[in-house]
Amino acid sequence: MAELIEYSYELGLMINQSQEVAEYLASKQRMAQDEEVIRLRGLFAKKKEAYEEVQRFGKYHPDFTRISAEIRELKHSIEMLDSIQAFKKAESRLDEMLYTVSRTIADAVSESIKVPSNNPFLEAMSQGCGTGGSCGCKTKKA
Questions:
Q1: What is the DSSP letter of 59?
Q2: pLDDT tens digits, one per residue of 5-58
Q3: Those residues with Cβ within 8 angstroms of residue 8's Cβ, 6 or more apart along the chain or in another chain
Q4: What is the pTM of this model?
Q5: Which residues contact 139 (CB under 8 A, 6 or more apart)?
């Protein structure tokens, strides 16, 4: 058991030293320092308060349509910023790497072990049709 824990720490160190983690941390820092992100997030926080107030009454509130449209537009503007997109891409690559490591470990024990993922496509690929891959729907291991 102690040896297994030691290998786990080594794996954790290797993951922390990976390019995916380095890119994730760098993009997260760039995003946090981006003046436009900071400005739009502040504006979003204010709009969110108005949106929550309108949500209490739903479509019957006189400003429901206007505020709902404004919050959607603002959210879209934030998501279109270069630093946000770079962060999301880095986050996705890191998530995929962590999923692959987890899936590899799980499959080494049993192919029926479930491994959660933030990407429903990855989860669907690993689950197949539920017959254990007898239909050929699961990708074969190398």
A1: G
A2: 999 999 999 999 999 999 999 999 999 999 999 999 999 999 999 999 888 888
A3: none
A4: 0.76
A5: 125
